[in-house]
């Protein structure tokens, strides 16, 4: 077995050899603790015949642990400067495919069809670049890529929002979108000290297990998400105020919106953060004919 990449000594050696300087703008905080990496991989519950998709391999610390645990790893890396480094650090592994692409622009479904077997068990496992955590998760969920789920490291504050319950200050449209597609679990808190360079905030690992079916039935998914985002546009405002100022022609249709809210037993003076996902679904379905139906 090769020497772990994720130790302070080996990481420094690699960075010095290539004169690599971290780019803050790309969220480059590399893991330097082999135990944390092994735990992340264990949360993914990979079998020898599973596959893994990684976003942002960096110098390959997590990538090599994934390659040891499953059949194939496909990793998207945006930073061209890391490609020769990865060729060097991961050169001994025959089961790693590095794709030089911004994952937000990639057709991940097509990449999966090309590199994984049909019906193969695949997990997304990543120490995400923090500046794009939410866009990456939302893109992969909306695209409905055929994976079992995600084990992803992110800022602790974002992790808390993903798993938040109605009534808490962390609960918002992100919580609803994530809980619509997955069952989230915060599985590990990770201190700043295991990264190089150290970020300003602590991190958490979250496991998101894809649901077979959403927990609610909605007439139109896009409109459901529009309603949830609108309801949280200004957290201090009432639901009615947010809906009238945020929905198309909301101001003109204020009276009808009040009637719709009453028809689904939601007091117009409540705030978005008090509504459950079931109440949001009922509200969006009742508003759909009034606001969105063409
Ligand atoms: N996996 C490595 C580790 O744990 O040590 C590095 C993680 S670092 C937090 C994030 C990585 O994502 C960096 O290598 C960065 O260059 C890469 N990255 C940033 N934005 C990206 C994007 N849009 N698409 C693909 N990779 C990206």
Description of the structure:
The chain is α/β, with parallel strands linked by helices and 294 residues long. It folds into 2 domains: 8-210, Vaccinia Virus protein VP39 (Rossmann fold, 3-Layer(aba) Sandwich); 221-291, Orthogonal Bundle (Helicase, Ruva Protein, domain 3), CATH 1.10.8.100. It has helices at 8-18, 34-43, 61-69, 83-89, 108-115, 133-142, 156-162, 173-181, 221-231, 239-246, 254-263, 277-291; strands at residues 30-31, 51-55, 72-77, 96-100, 122-127, 149-155, 182-190, 195-196, 203-210. It has a 7-stranded mixed beta sheet with strand order 4-3-2-5-6-9-7. It is elongated, with a radius of gyration of 21 Å. The protein starts with 7 loop residues before the first helix and ends with a helix.
What structural category do the secondary elements indicate? alpha/beta
- Helix/strand order, N-terminal first: HEHEHEHEHEHEHHEEEHHHH
**Helix count, DSSP H or I runs of 4 or more residues:** 12
Low-confidence stretches: none
Query: What is the global morphology?
Result: elongated
Give the CATH level 1 class of the largest domain.
Answer: Alpha Beta
Total strands: the figure is: 9
Radius of gyration: 21 Å
- Small molecules in complex: S-adenosylmethionine
In round numbers, the mean pLDDT is: 96
CATH structural fold name of the largest domain: Rossmann fold
CATH architecture of the largest domain: 3-Layer(aba) Sandwich
Fraction in helix:
25-40%
